[in-house]
Amino acid sequence: MLPPMSTTDPAEGEADTPRVAEARRRAAQRGHRQSARMHLALWVVMALTAGFAVPGRPRLAFTGEGLGISLALAGCLVPLSLAALDREPRSQVGTAVLPLILGVSGNALAVLRPTLLMEIPVAAAVAMLFARLRPRTALFLAAPLVMAIAVITTASAPSGISLQAGLSSVLLCVVLGASYVFSRQARLGRDRTELLLAELEDSREAEARAAAVAERARIARELHDVLAQSLSALSVQLEGARKLAERDHVDPALHRLIVRGGELTREGLSEARRAVAALRGDDVPTLDQLTALVDRCRRDLGLPIALSVTGEPRQLTAEANLALYRGAQEALTNAARYAPGSPTDVLLRYTAEGTTLTVTDHGRPAFRRADEDAAPGSADGDVANGDGTGSGPRSTSGPGEGGEAAVRVWTGGGNGLRGMRERIERVGGRTHAGPMGRGWSVRMEIPG
Description:
Elements: H1 18-53, H2 64-85, H3 92-112, H4 120-132, H5 135-156, H6 162-248, H7 252-279, H8 290-301, E1 305-310, H9 318-338, E2 344-350, E3 354-361, H10 401-410, H11 416-426, E4 430-436, E5 439-447
Parallel strand pairs: 1-2
Antiparallel strand pairs: 2-3, 3-5, 4-5
């Protein structure tokens, strides 16, 4: 095979982007197609050489003058067949050997058996040199072959057309050599252009990503310096108000409002901190960390959790990973808040249809309202959460004060079950939540 010249060093492709890799792949395909056309041309040259050289006299033989013709013909046909069958790139020295043998044998055959188109083997050798080697090297090796066939055709032609015969043989060699030089240069130029365009597109995307990262960092700083600081101060003030309310034995309804305001403030602060981390490009949790999440829930929230994973794990997008992880975190937090100590099952299933994460607790009826139903506006069991705080349709009764303190630390949904549903829907999934026996079940599905 004719070795297609690469536009860059092969080692440079080790860390190629997909766009650059695709450009290199198309360049390689064009090189292979050009080589295939050259191989077809070599088979045609071999047929023409044999067709013009075999007939006539003296006949091919193993003795006398016929032996010389046989050796010269073999010197033409063998390199042509080897070059047409070759599929591996060679060194420049190895690449030049076959065309030189072909050119020398073609000149010898033209001397021993002058025939019509006797310059074809030499012209093919010149074309192979220019197709396989750099133009300057090819010119240095092809010049003697062309001069030799010009002298031979001039000497063997009738006196009236000897000069024209010599010039025609030179012209044939020059045209074939030049055509292969120009075709190869055109291919390499197109390869370089596509590669440069791919690198330019990658550079533009990298520049756009850098600008987006800088803008996100600016927004993160604003959130941290303004919103997070304000929420922190508000949380401190509300905590002070709660203690004053407990000391002065204020109306229980007012006390509950102050406590709930403190919870909302802490949840908002936690959400702001996560938003700042996301904007700064910090690592976001994935399903690979689900086991660690369950372990922390067992330790910090006192939940007896059983984790099961079935099916062949698949690679999910970062958004899908984060949505499922946050959904599991929210569901486990709610289980600890509304059914403290209840056995809880976490099932992660990978199927051909998609990925499903189910969190089911077995419930504590004393902490549930008798009229616990989905909030208005939900459909097909989708989660609906009226206040967006994570309480969902469940009762506001909960565990004791110590357990509530642990849950306050863990509460991280920000927008609770509604936020869970919105996260899942943004990645094309669905969320279902509702009673299951004496307990509560949350199922998150992401297709694909």
